[in-house]
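Q&A FORM
Asked by: J.P.
Topic: structure of FACT complex subunit SSRP1

PROVIDED:
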Amino acid sequence: DTLEFDQIYQENKGAMYDGRLRISKQGIVFKNNKTGKVDNLSGTDLNLTHWFRVARGYELKVGLKSGAVFKYDGFKESDFDKLSDFINKNYKMRLEEKELSVKGWNWGTAKFKGPLLSFDIDNMSAFEIPLGNVSHCATSKNEVALEFHQNDDADVSLMEMRFYVPPNQDNPDVDPVQAFHDNVMDKADIIQATGDAICIFKELQCLTPRGRYDVRIYPTFLHLHGKTFDYKLPYTTVLRLFLLPHKDQRQMFFVVSLDPPIKQGQTRYHFLILQFSKEEDMTLELSLSEEDCADKFEGKLQKEMSGPVYEIVSRVMKSMVNRKITVPGSFKGNSGTSAVSCSHKAGAGFLYPLERGFIYVHKPPIHLRFDEISCVNFARGVASNRTFDFEIETKSGTTYTFSSIEKEEYGKLFDFTTNKKLRVKNRGKNLKDSVNYDEDMMGSDDEGQHDAYMERVKAEAAEGISDDDESSDDEEEDADFNPDGSGSDLAEEYDSNASISSSDEDEEDEEKKERRKKKLEKAKSKPAKRRRTSKRKKRQKKDPNAPKKAMTAFMLWLNATRSELRKENPDASIGEIGKIAGEKWREMGPSDKEEWEQKAKEDKERYKAAMEEYQARKEEEGSSEGEESDQAEKKTKKSKSSRPKPSPTKSPSKAGAGANYKSKEYITSDSDSDDSDSDRKKAKKSEDEEEEPIASTPPESEESAGDDDD
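REPLIED BY: S.T.
REPLY: Here is the structure written out as tokens.
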């Protein structure tokens, strides 16, 4: 029922983009691996299918009833039979084999076939030019010159092509050069601002390219008019639309992804970012009739619209571009917002985890889809222990590092990456649950499952993470933004089946969160206790008899005025009270500080005198303790010399001796009780070595046992 082909290439302005092609009964789907753009061709709209032998294997040319043409290269010769049978069976049309002219002649017949200019030699096509790539067309006496749009991804670009058009001798009234020019201009991608704009937005703040611009909306393109530069953006260059809330909850970002990008000299702007305040409202009147709004835009736009500026702009752009708007989904950071504050290179911005990728705003803007991500990595922060780095490595080998992320965001971000089944680089090689996003041509919403290894990693890392880091495994699904209130058709571009979780699931999430919080507290308590006891052993005890240190003038003043400061600032914390006191102390004049500086001087003299007295007392105690220790050593030596020598005694035999028998040398006198354990062990060892065994006459019943012992 389905044919799938990998490493299929699509040409765009001289660059070949690889992707995956899927042919089913419903139609043909091609997904660009670089941009993620999806071409979805319905089977009922197909008009022709041709098969060519080209430089890169074989090519499939597909034409639609609307006149649009799509070409896909990279097929093998053996694929022809499969494709021919499938197209004939499901689309009821024949896959025709066509040959290209390889004579190399530079004269022939120019034929305009829809959006293509075909140069034929002997009724065989030598080459075809997509007229949508033409940026300028000029004429002279018998010539027509075509200039083309450039693609930065192409190694070699076609800049210009000239055609010599001979005069028409059969009909001298018709100018063939002008006819050629008119046919090119009819299909060329040349922006001409003819007529009035549909609507105009005045002085919108733009972050990239930076400045304030008047945005004029035309039927086929968007015109940015600034004080220095003007930009015209065809709607065909728009890939995606994003509406992202600022972390302060007072502003909104409207992001337009462009391919090809805006060009200004050597600078390329792949994203157009507009910033709005939520409090700004406007009333807009379109220069269209009610019938045109209903017919062209299917009722998505009204002639008069009012509301927040960001909502009006997003509604108009969505209707003109005919693309869905992507908004943040289920992810909520530690602050309760969808944005994570971080830095990329030298610029600070916000990272938004989406249902199908990540987007970083704003300098430089970066959009990374899950299907182009190889793995992610959580690394220690270089500058501070309170932050960490989040690294994303793409399949092409490029690594994007988002640094200076607060540790409170770790738990939420780790849960998100695990639920999306992204491969975590420093987590091991267990990839059984990982999702291959390449296999998913149109996107999916598979939810992540509970992972025991994740819980263990979080427990080990919990020492440096606050309790607020904990987050639930199951979060709400992506809630797509819809300015007109429907909310049904604004899912992620590849995410067409987004669902909303119920309140019952929210209650289960709270219960799971409480259970995991308790487990984490138990895991944190054990290593923390061990570390505190070990530190306490190393810490030197403070002498309670030591005099109290002298206080500075500021501390004396602070102790006297602390109660007044607390009354003036009842909600301030201890640290904030200290900051307020420091500012007041700096503002005080020398005359006001003189009293406290005198008190500090007196306190310093008091501490100096008390310290001298303390040191003298400590030295006297040390000398008395030394005399007592000398007397104790003399007493110990005297007790060792007066110890009685051991007398011979009968050694116990194995059979007749009692279990509790001890020889005389093991019995210590009362004088030995003051000795240390080490002294007793040394004395005992020396006495055992000096003792000589004395034989005694054992009873007859014990002779055999004594012999066995010998």
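FOLLOW-UP: The CA atoms of residues 82 and 639 lie 109 Å apart.
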